[in-house]
Each structure stands twice: as C-alpha cells, then as structure tokens.
User: Fold Ubiquinol-cytochrome c chaperone domain-containing protein from Methylobacterium tardum.
Amino acid sequence: MIAGLFRRANARRRAVEGLHLALSMAARQPGLYTRLGVPDTVEGRFEALCLHAILVLRRLSRLPAPAAEVAQDLVNSVFTQLDASLRELGVGDMGVSKRMKKLGAAFYGRATGYDAALDAGDTAALRAALVRNVLGGEGDGTGLAAYVQAVDAALAAVDLDGLLGDGPPFPKPDGFAPAFAPNEDRAGDRA
Assistant:
C-alpha cells in the first residue's frame, strides 16, 4: 500500500517537473525576445517565465481536482528554481529570503492583473499590464497581448491529462509580432 502511494507521488512529481520544463522552454522561445519585445535580460526572462506559469495556473484553477494540488506543486517547483537561481548568482541566505518575498509578491500581483484583464476581455488593460511588467515600459505590447490571448484560448481547450501528458499548447510567438518588430531595421530609419 505504501509503495503504491510512493509510486503515485513520484508520478505526480515527474508530471509537474515535465510541466515546469514546458513552461521554461516556452519562456525561452526566441520570438518572445526578438519579435515581441521582451527584454533579453534576467528580469525579462523572469517575466517570461512568470507569464507562462500564470497562464497555466489560470487554466489549472478552472479544472476539477486534483488540478489545485498540481497547481500548488507547480508553484513550489517554480519558486524552488528561482531560489536556486538566486543562490547561483551569489545572493546570500538573508538576501534570498527578502528577494523571494519580493518575487512572490510580484508574481501574484501580475497574476491578479493578467487574470482580471483576460476575464474581462479587456485587451487594452492586458496590453498596459504587459507593457508595464514584461516589456519594462517600452513598446505598445500589441503582439505580446495577442500572444497571451492565444495561449489563454489554447489552454482553455486542454484538460488536466492533456496538460500533464502532451504539455501546454504554447503557440510560437513569431506569428504574433507587430508589423514592425522591435529589433528590425525600418527602411525609413536609414536616411
């Protein structure tokens, strides 16, 4: 009996690790940085990871049990990785604790803002939140908002087995780039 419980716990842990890996891979898609304007910095990568985690957690919050347990395991996994990353950067124990509190507050604040905008179908509010948080106040966020809405719609069609089995259906961000991508030269600018 205990062996059965242990096997199930290990299976869920592996499934959550796979989900976390899928989030990390989605947050590293080059198109986010080259086409949608996410800064290729430590902060930008944190924002991209948070954004994808928030979208998956949003979906998990709408699914029946045991989705809430999976969501908590995913949050724990993401924050354990962030803690380890801070330590690798040389932040001491006291500093890690303070920074983790700030990161947690930022994460949940962003989740609340993105959730409200997506629930209301308020593209302007979503764009403003993404520009402020993810894009560091630069750009208009049109392409990124379209990407986020597409991810949210794709996730809405997936159940828990799909999330844990095939992984979240993250589209390629390249297809959501504005007519003029932030890192491209404009012919009119070369005069």
